[in-house]
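Record type: monomer structure entry
Structure origin: computed from sequence
Chain ID: A
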Amino acid sequence: MLPVNAQANNTQTKKAGDIVVTIKPLYSLVAQLSEGITQPVLLMKQMPSAHHYNMRPSDRRLLANAGVIIWIGPQLESYLDKTIQQQDAMIISAMQADGLKLLERRAKNDDQHSAEHSAHDHHGHFDPHIWLSAHNAIAISKHITGQLISHDPENADRYKKNLQQVSDKISRLAAEIRAGLKNRQQPFITYHDAFQYFEKENKLRYIDSINFNEEAGTSLKHLRHIKAEIKQKQIQCLLYQPPEPDIIKTLTADSTIKAVALDPLGLHVKNDENAWFEIMQGIAESFKHCLGNG
C-alpha cells in the first residue's frame, strides 16, 4: 500500500513524493487519476528530449524516496533504466499496459512496415511515443489505475471514478481532433519520426523523416533524397520538435515549404495536470496550420 497516515480519510491528500512520474504527458494522466487521493510529483519538468536527461542529486533523492515510480519504459527513458532497477518502489511502465496499439519504429524511406502488435510482444522495436494516441492514453490510464488500486485498495472507488472521468475526457477530445483535421491527404514530412501514433490514429499522410536516429544524425544521401521528395511530391509541410534544428532553415530557405513546431512533451504547457490534453490539442492545431486547413 502507498504510505498513508492512518488517520487520513480517502479524500485527504497524501504527502508529495509518494508517486513520481517521469514525463509531463504521463504525469498529467496520473495526476487526474489520483485526484483527491494523492499528489504525484513530476521528475522531468523541462527537457527538449525524453531520451536524454542529466539527473541531479535532487532527482535521485526523489526517486529513492518514492513509493511508486511511473514511466513509459526503457524504450524512451533509457537513461533511467539502471537507476529505476535499483529503487525499492513499485515500478509502473506504460509500455506494459494491456490493449496498447504499438507501432514499429520506422526506417529510412519505409513506412510500409509499421504494424500493430500486442503489448506482450518484445518492445525493443517499437516506437515509444505511445501517449500520442487517444486509444493508448486510455489503455495506459486503465493500466496505471489497476496498479495503483493493487497498492492502495482503500481508495479503489475513487480511482475507478477518476478513471471513468479521464477516459471520457480523452474520448471527447479525440473526437474533436478527428473532426477538426480535414485536409488529411496533404503530404508532410517530419524532422524526427516521433508522431506516428497521432498520424495513424487520425489518418494523416506521412511521407518521410529527415532523422530516424538522434545519435547518428542525417546522411547527405538521405538529405538529398528528402529534398527530391519535397520537390517531386510538392510537400508543403515540415514538422519538427523544438528546439529548431539548423537543417530546417536549409530546407526552407529556397522553397515554399512551411516548417511548424510540435510539442509532444509539453515543454510550453504551464498546467502540468492538464498537459496531455493541451499537448494533443496543440499538436492538432499545428497539423492544421501546417497542412493548410487551420
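Annotation 1: Residues 12 and 76 are 33 Å apart (CA to CA).
Annotation 2: The two ends are 48 Å apart (CA to CA).
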